[in-house]
Amino acid sequence: MSNAAATLVGQNLGARQPERAEQSVRTAAKYNAVFMLFVSLLFLFGASPIVGFINRDPAVEAVAVQALRIISLGYVFYGVGMVLTNAFNGAGDTLTPTIINIFGFWAFQIPRLWFLALGLDLGPSGVFMAILITETCITLVSFVLFRRGKWKEVKV
User: Fewer Cβ atoms within 10 Å of its own Cβ: the N or the C terminal residue of the chain?
Assistant: First the structure.
């Protein structure tokens, strides 16, 4: 979905139809959000059988089930965020997603991960929560930047 959104953005901006490009991104984001909602529900309620099919070690299974359940809470945001960041790329604006990802992962996620996992002694749960928080924040930042619309003005 995100690659399709990037292609549609590039085509529509090239055809000088920025509103159509924006609508393409909104449509792709909606479809991706719905798909990711189903994946989230699958992982929330089917985590044990899924992990049990792959690995039967009880210690590994406990951590893996916890990971699936916590991280999947943000899949809807993650799905929308993927579409938004690829829309920037499709518009020829590769700087925006680069800055978002560098800041989001290096300056935000890693310190948050350390703080939650070690500082608050949450262990693996803190790692999974940091991923959830980071992906949600990256999507929110991407949404704000997308709404500003400067991506429509990038000259390639």
Answer: C
